């Protein structure tokens, strides 16, 4: 969607200065670890999918999204989904007290010895579909200028740009529909874009980026 989380290639947000992984703590504070653990435990109930979770985080007012830290946005998305999926009520969230008169939700919990496997193994997004791929390796393609009002994995900085298909990744779950609860497969391609194509005249133009794009995002040149 055209929201504030899609900042790739935009000027004015300062340089990205990532710390070396060995120097950066996994969590900046204890509450972040608790949010991560809570998110994993609730997502194990399988009441929503990854793209629904992403959409719940993205669908905030831009000022709220940008002022929040990473795990604050995680928590906001989790709270929204838990209410939408009837796992808790607004009153329970506000008070922090469960309604003992409500019908209890009966789900199989995620046990401690299952956590590592659940986090690192996950589930596959690959799907078998009957349609043949529309593009081949080496094809020149143009990215559709789609201004979605919902969730999408189409970065704004490549919309309307031309690239070359480098690899066919097979068919995978199409995130735009998956965020709506529709598990549909589409062919996925790795497309190469030159720096000059994306950013115009740049001093260091002898490089480019590969972006994984679903077939619906691409057009024939």
How would you characterize this protein structure?
This protein has 221 residues and is α+β, with helices and mostly antiparallel strands. Helices cover 30% and strands 16% of the residues. The protein has a 5-stranded antiparallel sheet. Helix 1 packs parallel to helix 4 and helix 2 (50-58) crosses helix 4.
Average residue-wise pLDDT: 89
Spatial arrangement of strands, main beta sheet = 4-3-2-1-5
Radius of gyration: 20 Å
Structural class: alpha+beta
What name does the CATH topology of the largest domain carry?
Cyclin A, domain 1
CATH class of the largest domain: Mainly Alpha
What's the architecture of the largest domain, going by CATH? Orthogonal Bundle
DSSP strand (E) fraction?
Answer: 15-25%
Number of strands: 5
Number of domains: 2
In one word, what is the shape?
A: globular
Taking the sheet with the most strands, its summary is:
5 strands, antiparallel
User: What's the CATH superfamily of the largest domain, by name?
Assistant: Nitrile hydratase, beta subunit
Keywords:
single chain; alpha+beta; five-stranded antiparallel β-sheet; Cyclin A, domain 1; 16% strand
Q: What's the short story on this structure?
A:
With 221 residues, the chain is α+β, with helices and mostly antiparallel strands.
SSE map:
Elements: H1 30-43, H2 50-58, H3 62-67, H4 70-84, H5 90-95, H6 115-121, E1 140-143, E2 162-173, H7 175-178, E3 185-194, H8 195-199, E4 208-214, E5 218-220
Antiparallel strand pairs: 1-2, 1-5, 2-3, 3-4
Helix pairs in contact: 1-4, 2-4
């Amino acid at each position: 969607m055209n929201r504030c989380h899609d900042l790739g290639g935009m000027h004015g947000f300062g340089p990205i200065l990532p710390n070396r992984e060995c120097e950066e703590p996994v969590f900046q504070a204890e509450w972040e670890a608790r949010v991560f653990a809570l998110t994993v435990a609730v997502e194990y109930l399988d009441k929503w999918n990854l793209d629904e979770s992403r959409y719940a985080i993205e669908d905030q007012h831009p000022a709220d999204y940008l002022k929040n830290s990473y795990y604050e946005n995680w928590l906001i998305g989790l709270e929204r989904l838990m209410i939408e999926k009837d796992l808790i009520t607004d009153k329970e969230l506000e008070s922090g007290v469960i309604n003992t008169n409500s019908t209890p939700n009966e789900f199989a919990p995620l046990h401690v010895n299952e956590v590592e496997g659940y986090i690192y193994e996950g589930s596959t997004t690959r799907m078998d579909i009957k349609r043949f791929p529309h593009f081949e390796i080496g094809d020149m393609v143009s990215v559709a200028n789609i201004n979605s009002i919902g969730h999408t994995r189409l970065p704004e900085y490549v919309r309307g740009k031309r690239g070359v298909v480098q690899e066919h990744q097979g068919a995978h779950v199409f995130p735009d529909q998956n965020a709506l609860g529709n598990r549909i497969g589409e062919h996925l391609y790795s497309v190469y874009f030159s720096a000059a194509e994306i950013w115009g005249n740049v001093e260091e133009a002898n490089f480019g980026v590969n972006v994984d794009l679903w077939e619906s995002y691409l057009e024939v040149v």
